[in-house]
Write a structure and sequence with these properties.
This protein is an alpha+beta fold. It has one domain. It contains two helices and three strands. It has a three-stranded antiparallel beta sheet. The longest helix has 17 residues. The mean pLDDT is 91. The chain binds zinc ion (ZN).
């Protein structure tokens, strides 16, 4: 998802609750990878935050 699209998604989503079901790589001018962004709410995550979230979800999944 491009940076400006993420901003539009973020504006459209507003302050609603989101559990960030799907993170996409975020690009700037089609070339540079910056961060990950939630395709539902447009919130940005660093790569470290994404890895941490994956880890937490894996732990939760193992407990189920
Ligand atoms: Zn989200």
């Amino acid at each position: 998802m491009e940076y400006y699209v993420a901003q539009q998604v973020k504006d459209a989503w507003g302050d609603k609750q989101c559990d960030h079901p799907h993170l996409e790589k975020e690009y700037y001018t089609g070339a540079f990878l910056i961060n990950f962004v939630c395709s539902q709410c447009g919130m940005e995550f660093t790569i470290a935050q994404k890895l941490e979230m994956d880890e937490v979800r894996k732990i939760k999944a193992d407990k189920l």
